[in-house]
Write a structure and sequence with these properties.
By secondary structure, the protein is of the alpha/beta class. It is built from 3 helices and 13 strands, in the order αβββββββββββββαα. Helix content is 43%, strand content 33%.
Amino acid sequence: MSETTDNQSSQGSSVALAGAAIRAGAPSSTNQSVIGPTLIVRGEITAEEDLLIRGRVEGTISHDQTLTVHREGTIVAVVRAKEIHIEGSVEGDLFGTQRVKVCETGKVTGNVVAPRVAVMDGAHLKGMVDMDSDSSAIERRFLEQVKQKPGSTTNSQTADDGVKTASKSSGRRGAAKTDGKDNTAAQETQGSADEDQSSAGAS
């Protein structure tokens, strides 16, 4: 009798936990990170486990597993993930290496690139859809998009390289000009010497 009671109570606990997970909008995966509804994250997020966003993220998300934007969540970012589920609001391009799903409550302003794209009835999508089946090409397009973002590390590095290259070029141009002036002066000196010799010969 006691064993039955223990089993019933443990089952009740499991049901309660499952109910709590459903109310929180969390998938059943145990390896999942959550950005809470009161959190605001700005910058770059990189993760290798399922991620649930209930707060606000601005910047870049590079993800290797499933990314879920809860109906409370807001993203203003360029996003790459294996699977992307949108229940909330997204402003930015989405790159799914396997699948992108925009749910009934989802609102996306941006382009969607993925082998499989599902837009549910009632969802809002303003942008182009490209169902590219090449995951490597999707990865490259994501990296190119990140490079084009203002303030990105790659952009800053490229700008610095450009400044260095320009400085080197200016230095070379300066040396060329200097050499040109020196050569001109040498030619003028040689010309004066020739004139002096001609004058001496005539006299």
